[in-house]
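Reopening: HAD hydrolase, REG2-like, family IA subfamily protein still failing for me.
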Amino acid sequence: MQVRPKLVSLDATGTLFRVRGSVGEAYARAAEAFGVHGLRPASLTRGFFAAWRDHNVRHPNFGHGTELSSYNWWSSLFGATLAHARPELSHSEEFAADVFPKLFDQVWHDFTRAEAWEVFPETEPVIKTLRSNGIKVAVVSNFDERLPLLLKNLGLDHLFDVVLPSCYAGVAKPDPDIFYQALRKANVEGSEAVHVGDDYKKDYRGAKDAGLSRAFLMCRDAVALEKAAQVPPADILHNLSDLLPALGLQGPTLAQLSQCQGKAKRV
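Support: Ran it again with your exact input. Result attached.
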């Protein structure tokens, strides 16, 4: 007989929600509003991921434990992203003094707003099903201090017993301590908890190394699935609805949710 967990911890981006469109599209729209025209979203997106990798190597966990605040960490990353798409901006004193600070501040706040994100259709129904079965739910995410406000603006904050962004934990996944902190906050043992996330090293291996009873890897597309060859098929989820039968619970499938949404739109 399958033993139900007392806690399900969930990653945020890629598991509960995703950026609407692309980061490059969001940055290009913001730049247009400040008179910076013609930035190509695809180039901005490539620049973003290059800067993301670099900043996470040089200043992990949004600069925690260094002289950088997360606000300044993101400001530096945003500047590097713009420079990738249009190098001459990094040499403009006028842009740096008059435009960049206001533009970045707008972008920083834009990503706390619901309009910047797309919540996966199964997110809320699945979490409600978990809670109705007496299971606590946590968010354990490599995220900055905007996460609680973002969850509130998305209308999801009431669904969680624990919200633990890495900047509050002081460590980031896959460090076991972020999982240990979530377990303590939820007052459960690792053997009573499972974790779901979309990153093999940070989520799947991180949760297993922390001693959680089970970990699931979210693979929403073929590219992610190809990278998950070392993960047992039973530990792979294609969407959050797949978690319920994996835990021996009944609940709506993604197809059923999509059908209901379609009917609602036609009413």
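The two ends are 43 Å apart (CA to CA). If you still see a failure, please send the error message rather than a screenshot.
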